[in-house]
Specification:
alpha/beta; Rossmann fold; Methionyl-tRNA Fmet Formyltransferase, Chain A, domain 2; 2 domains; 8 helices; 29% strand; elongated
Amino acid sequence: MNRDLRIVFMGTPDFAVETLKHILDNNFTVVCVVTAPDRPAGRGRKLQQSAVKTFAEQRGLSILQPTNLKDEDFLESLKALQANLQVVVAFRMLPKVVWDMPNYGTFNLHASLLPEYRGAAPINWAIINGEKQTGVTTFFIDDKIDTGEIIAHRTVAIGENENAGSLHDRLMVEGAVLVIETLENIAADKVETTKQPQLEIEKTAYKLNKENTKINWNDTSKAIYNLIRGLSPYPSAWTVLDNGDDVQMNIKVYDSQVELKDHSLEPGVVLVEDKKLKVASSDGFLILTEIQLAGKRKMVIKDVLNGFSFNSNAKMR
């Protein structure tokens, strides 16, 4: 049996564009794209459209941009498309009236090996927690977040020094390939789903915020290193520099190296040695190799030290 799929695709960022491109390039029929409304951005507050909308326009696809997913006009437009399947990648939580609409269901691509790392930032938290592997999962949406029955998954190794940007790009491609496999199996009526197992300890991909992206210099060097690479290049780990002269500024940290070494310094103490910027942790030092001072561009440490002086009593807090 080969079903004729009529797909509504829902997504917003670049991560979703790769999947949409794969769907079209594999000759599946996309009857409409649903994406976020245009939003003001930048200093000029000009309206900026999503990456998915930009790509959909280039491919001549029909586009819907609802502000309210329960809006009657939106629901009527969605029904009128007569889609029999919805594919969701990096969008937002759908009400039942939307995900329950198509005959063949609505499935989501999630960037983790579910049930691990349910939530908003699975790529970041896998690295922050020092995982050696992660992956991508397709699953049918139900009434909770990332809890539906699993269709398929692909496992991806995490490099020892890999950051979130690199892993994002690899999972983006692996996810697109997995979506095509999932579509082919749905079209052939060969999907066998499995319920997500209950884990004794759940690893959650909490939404990133100002608090959980701040560096705690009392942590171990490895934990700080993983936080930095797990948040690089976006949204970035950050800290406050007290330069010892009543000047405090926020600093973003994008890259570092670990130096395990016994010392008697307080965590956060800053040392400049041999053109290196080192910050004490509980069990050694972080050698910061790429940072961004407040009001400046991202720079390697050599360039930072050429134009900025760290005082002898400087400390990161």
